[in-house]
Amino acid sequence: MVELEKFYKNKKIVITGVTGFKGAWLCQILRNFNSKILGIGYKPNKNQNLFNQLNIANEISLKYTDIRNYKKLNKIIKAFKPQIIFHLAAQPIIFQSYLDPVSTININSVGTLNLIDISKNLESLKSVVCVTSDKCYANNFSTKGFKETDQLGGADPYSASKASAEIIVNAYKESYFKKKKIGLATARAGNVIGGGDWSPDRLIPDTINSLMKQKEIFIRNPGFNRPWQHVLEPLNGYLILAQKLYLNPKKYSTAWNFGSEKNTVTSVYEVVNKMTKMWGFGKIKYKKNFKFYEQKNLQLNIDKAKKILKWKPIYTIDQSVKNTIDWYKEVYYKKKSPKEITENQIREYYYHVKKSKKNSS
Predict the structure, then answer these.
(1) Could you report the per-residue pLDDT of 25-37, keeping only the tens digit for each?
(2) Rounded CA gap, 223 and 225, in Å?
(3) How far apart, in whole angstroms, are the C-alpha atoms of residue 232 and residue 120?
(4) Which of 70, 187, 296, 299 could form a disulfide with 145 if both were Cys (CB 3.0 to 4.6 A apart)?
(5) Are 152 and 118 within 8 A, CB to CB?
(6) What CA dihedral angle connects 221, 134, 23 and 240, to 10 degrees?
């Protein structure tokens, strides 16, 4: 943490999607590092609860705009003169992508195009991390884990939008960024969990809502497997990646997977079952007749990030679920400050990161 904190101190950083779940957590980490932050958010954002609970709006420069509005986005970013950009803004829900595919593809693909096109003309800029998704890969029905070189694709609008974003970023990297000496990379993360997530139609928030209301928990795909990880795991990866891009753009400007360790993929049922046991109660039922396609098995191969970035997952699935449950219990039952709990979990995570490095050296 000391090395990252030293690097990010006083760095001018843009975070798009700052009002979202991952954006709020990332912003809190960088506030702890004393970075100078311009957060770009969108109204309305159904998952802005955590951002508000952390009181972030009073600690950073905040602009609300739609990333599909090129002119306004360009004006905001250009005036700030950032050194690093984390692009997290997206329509992140698969179910919503079926209901509104045009909007999903516009936000995730065209929004990324706008951000990257603006970035290529910024003289102050040194590093850009575009967060896409583990869903960007074409389904090959393998359980070995997708590598960064595997085929991109998507049998649903959300996956297609993320694969398109990947292609756009790569095209700009080859055509413009090499000449500009700006580091540009994509980050493909697994399914994240953690405190403060209230996104609709997402497993953890839906389960927490049911537990808090003492209602039955309905899950639609109990046997589906995902590379679940605590939100701090990929965020730490993004921070390491942005630093490497800043210092050596040529070496690190490529795609990176951030997921769980091999053979740790866990089913939807197992995750919810762990949550009910740690919560103290909860009854699970299956929701039938879900008519949209979702990939059954999804695993990321993270060997590249482990070897080259020296990043690796720190928490087991049990620890990730425990931290998530603890956050909600501390905030909503013990009435503790969401900011205090979030900062405590960040400090605890980086303590384990430091401990892990010592043990492996």
Answers:
(1) 999 999 999 999 9
(2) 6
(3) 29
(4) 299
(5) no
(6) 140
- d(C-alpha 10, C-alpha 193), whole Å: 29
Q: How many residues does the chain have?
A: 361
Structure tokens at 276: 């009910």
Report the helix count and the strand count for the chain, using DSSP H and E.
16, 13
The two tokens of residue 34 are: 């004393």
Is residue 256 within 8 Å of residue 310, measured between CB atoms? no
Phi, psi of 229 (to 5 degrees): -155, 150
C-alpha gyration radius of the chain = 19
pLDDT tens string 125-151: 999 999 999 999 998 766 678 999 999
Q: For the residues of 259-286, what is the DSSP string, one character each?
A: -PPTT--EEHHHHHHHHHHHHT---EEE
Query: Is residue 2 left, alpha or beta, with left meaning phi > 0 and alpha meaning psi from -120 to 50?
Result: alpha
- Around Cβ 1, how many Cβ atoms within 10 Å? 17
In the numeric block, which tokens belong to residue 284? 């699970």
Residue type, 178: K
Global pTM value: 0.94
How big, in percent rounded to 5, are the helix, strand and coil portions of the chain?
50, 15, 35
